TrEMBL record:
Domain of life (superkingdom): Archaea
Gene3D superfamilies assigned: P-loop containing nucleotide triphosphate hydrolases
GO MF terms, alphabetically ordered: ATP binding; ATP hydrolysis activity
Protein species of origin: Candidatus Nitrosocaldus cavascurensis
Protein name: ABC-type nitrate/sulfonate/bicarbonate transport system, ATPase component
ABC transporter domain segment(s): 4-235
Alphabetically ordered keywords of this record: ATP-binding, Nucleotide-binding, Transport
Pfam families: ABC_tran
C-alpha cells in the first residue's frame, strides 16, 4: 500500500466569466520515504493540488488517501512548507520551531529538546535565540524546515521553497535537503518550476500538462545521492523532463498571449 495516494482528483472553480477546471482526474501514488517532484507550466494547478493534499482546499472530485485512509482536513500528518517561510517575527528562532509543539500541548522541556535537535540537524543551533530579521533567506527556510520536521509529519509538502533564494544558497540547500531526507526517511512531495532542481532532488519527477493539469509523464531518476545540480550526468534526465514539458509550456504561452490580446483589443 502506498503512503500517499491522489485518486482521480479534479478541481473546478466558478468565476464570473465561467467555469475553470484547473485539475482533471489526476492520480498519483507516492511510496513511504519517496521523494517526488511535481513539474508543470505556470498556472497548471501544481500548488492547487498540493493545497488539496494538505487539506487547505477541497477537491471537486476524487480523494486523497494517507496510509489507506481518506483525508480531507488539515492535520499534523501533512505539513506544508511555502516559498516564504511564514515565520513569526516576534518569536525567536527556537520559539518558532517550538510553536507547533506548544499548540499541541507538549511539555516545555520536551519541546525545547526536540526543537534543538532539529535546529542542530539544520545547522542552526547557534542561532536559536536570534530573531527572524537577523537571518538570511536561506537560514529562514532552514528554520521553516526544522519547524515542520519537529512535528514528525507523515508527509512533507514543499511548494517551491527555494524559488526566492539566490542560486548559490539554493544549490547548497539542495544538497542539505537530500542529506536531511536520507536521515529522516520522510515522504516528500515537492513542487518546482526548476527542471534542474527537480532531477537533482527526486526519485521521480511527475510532469503535469497545461491547465487543466493531468499527469503527462513520470521520469524516474536512478542516480546516486547526494546529487549536485551541476552534475552533467543528470542532463539526460533533465532532457526527458524538458521534452515532456515543452509542448505544455508552449500551450500556456499561447493562452497567455490570447489573454493579453483580448485585453488590448478592449
Amino acid at each position: 500500500m502506498a503512503k500517499l495516494e491522489v485518486r482521480n482528483v479534479s478541481k473546478v472553480y466558478n468565476h464570473s466569466n465561467g467555469i475553470v477546471k484547473t485539475i482533471d482526474g489526476v492520480s498519483i501514488s507516492v511510496e513511504d520515504g519517496e521523494f517526488v517532484c511535481l513539474v508543470g507550466p505556470s498556472g497548471c494547478g501544481k500548488s492547487t493540488l498540493l493545497n488539496i493534499i494538505a487539506g487547505l482546499e477541497s477537491p471537486s472530485d476524487g480523494e486523497i488517501l494517507l496510509d489507506g485512509r481518506c483525508v480531507s482536513d488539515t492535520g499534523p500528518d501533512r505539513i506544508m512548507i511555502f516559498q516564504e517561510g511564514a515565520l513569526f517575527p516576534w518569536l525567536t528562532i527556537i520559539e518558532n520551531v517550538e510553536f507547533g509543539l506548544k499548540m499541541a500541548g507538549v511539555e516545555k522541556a520536551r519541546r525545547r529538546e526536540l526543537a534543538m535537535h532539529y535546529l542542530q540537524l539544520m545547522q542552526l543551533d547557534k542561532f536559536a535565540d536570534y530573531y527572524v530579521h537577523q537571518l538570511s533567506g536561506g537560514m529562514k527556510q532552514r528554520v521553516a524546515i526544522a519547524r515542520s520536521l519537529v512535528m514528525d509529519p507523515e508527509v512533507l509538502l514543499m511548494d517551491e521553497p527555494f524559488a526566492a533564494l539566490d542560486a548559490q544558497t539554493r544549490d547548497l540547500l539542495l544538497v542539505e535537503l537530500q542529506l536531511l531526507w536520507q536521515k529522516t526517511k520522510k515522504t516528500i512531495l515537492f513542487v518546482t518550476h526548476n527542471i534542474a532542481e527537480s532531477v537533482c532532488l527526486a526519485d521521480r519527477v511527475i510532469v503535469l500538462t497545461h491547465r487543466p493539469a493531468r499527469v503527462k509523464k513520470e521520469v524516474r531518476i536512478d542516480y546516486r545521492r547526494p546529487r549536485l545540480i551541476e552534475d552533467a550526468n543528470l542532463s539526460r534526465y533533465a532532457s526527458e523532463v524538458i521534452e515532456a514539458l515543452k509542448g505544455e509550456v508552449i500551450a500556456a504561452m499561447k493562452e497567455e498571449y490570447k489573454s493579453v490580446d483580448g485585453i488590448v483589443d478592449k
